[in-house]
Amino acid sequence: MKIQSQSLKSIESRLEKGARRDELGISKGMEIRATVVDSSLSKVRIMLENGRQLSAKTSVPFENFINEKLVFKVLADEGGLVIRPKLQDANIRHELDMKVSKLIASLGLQDNQESREIVRDMMKLEIPVTKNNFQAISENIKSLEILKMLDKDEVAALKSTVAKAESMELRELGKLVIAESKGENLKGLLDILKAASAGRDELLFMFKNGIKLNVQNTINMSGINDGSVNIATVLEQLGEGLQNMAVSNETPQIKIKNELVRIMENIVVDFSKEETPQISNKRGLDSLTGKLEELIKADINKAEGAGELESAFGKLQLLSELGKAEGYFQLPLRGQNENHVAQLLVKRERKREQGESERYSALIAIGTSNLGNVACKVGYSASCGYDVEFSLEDERTVRLFKASARAIDKSLSELGGMPVRTSFRLAEDRDDRSELIGNSRDTIQEMPNFDMWV
To answer: What mean pLDDT, rounded, does the chain reach?
Structure first.
């Protein structure tokens, strides 16, 4: 694993309760002296020379600097101070290594490269570094790696059946398959798991967000990565499950079922009608997930169709968590002759030019039958307005969009009367959609949680 020192040095600070920023006289570009008062796994508290205190989130361990004065540079002063300790990269790496070593020793773990990487990842993602958490992450990662490496002969040699393998934790299934040679009925499931793209990063993401590290969730996460699992396919699966579910009009479940159907219809943006489509419920995915969970719990007798509902619930839960943790959303679109899924990624950019206000960006991608994949990056700041860049698959599509540039500029200008700069380019060899889901450890940490819908 590679941890970039640049990503470790910025700290977002918040004032202690009762303190006002204008009383502190702190502004962007200043250097301030402060004493490190306290430090924990992911937080630090510092005291300014005037006695005021700031709390901050940090990836840099400050235990060894408690009661010491350090110099910090103020990088930003809007929406929470962003400060950077003036430490050499070597000092930061040394402090991080020392912290990792202390944690490994305190937990009684074997000090090796693998343990260090997992502990660093846990620190960076703000996962409490406890022995139970470490073992859960480590054992599930190892089990997934080993299960993926099983060859045909090893799978063919498995004896006896394993029930409900999809809902088992990876380490639980790994013990049955690897240590006890059980699972003669699992060839199909193991083949799917072997082909799954999900690995260490996805397991860390799921653990951080309280999602069980079982086989089905791992496969679902892989499906989201490769596009085979998306909001449209999940809604289709959910619709079939509800249709197959025989519910009497006299039972409480019928009300929940009808509410689910209504939410599903509201989630879809319908362009097949003449009127302008509206998103009636921007929190539709959360509402749908919560209502579906309610129906599954209420259906005690597990009626026909319950399996489809539970499978759809797991996928919806993952999509919902991606929205909360990474600002990544999927929006189903209904057209005259075909349906699409728009992918949206919204994030705040911390790096800014001198004098520029805080900048937000959104990446939107839609696969179309006539124009191929159309990706659009929209950047916005209050001081500079909109920057819009379209990434298109061929020259014909570029020419088509350039011809509509004025209409695009006009539409965006009407949003807030801000200046708009529009550009068009051919997509690079790599698929721009790969940028939509950031599964690397660095990307997960840098992607803030936004309550925003494009």
So the answer is: 76
Model pLDDT for residues 116-159, shown as the tens digit of each residue: 999 988 887 878 888 999 999 999 999 999 999 999 999 999 99
Domain segments of the chain as ranges: 5-96, 130-224, 230-325, 339-446
CB 416 within 8 A of CB 383: no
Per-residue exposure over 252-269, b if at least 16 CB sit within 10 Å of its own CB, e if not = ebeebbebbeebbebbbb
Would you identify the CATH topology of the domain 5-96? OB fold (Dihydrolipoamide Acetyltransferase, E2P) (2.40.50)
Please tell me the distance from the alpha carbon of residue 384 to that of residue 76, in angstroms, as a whole number: 17
Whether this prediction's pTM lies above 0.70 is answered by no
pLDDT, residue 24, reads 59
SS (H, E, C) the chain: CCCCHHHHHCEEEEECCCCCHHHHCCCCCCEEEEEEEEECCCEEEEEECCCCEEEEECCCCCHHHECCEEEEEEEECCCCEEEEECCCHHHHHHHHHHHHHHHHHHCCCCCCHHHHHHHHHHHHCCCCCCHHHHHHHHHHHHHHHHHHHCCHHHHHCCECCCCCHHHCEHHHHHHHHHHCCECCCCHHHHHHHHHCCCCHHHHHHHHHCCCCCEHHHHHHHHHHHHCCCCHHHHHHHHHHHHHHCCCCCCCCHHHHHHHHHHHHHHHCEECCCCCCCCCCCCCHHHHHHHHHHHHHHHCCCCCCCHHHHHHHHHHHHHHHHHHHHHCEEEEEEECCCCEEEEEEEEEEECCCCCCCCCEEEEEEEEEECCCEEEEEEEEEECCCEEEEEEEECCHHHHHHHHHCHHHHHHHHHHHHCCCEEEEEEECCCCCHHHHCCCCCHHHHHHCCCCCCCC
Nearest-angstrom CA–CA distance, 430 and 427: 8
pLDDT tens for each residue of 165-178: 999 999 999 999 99
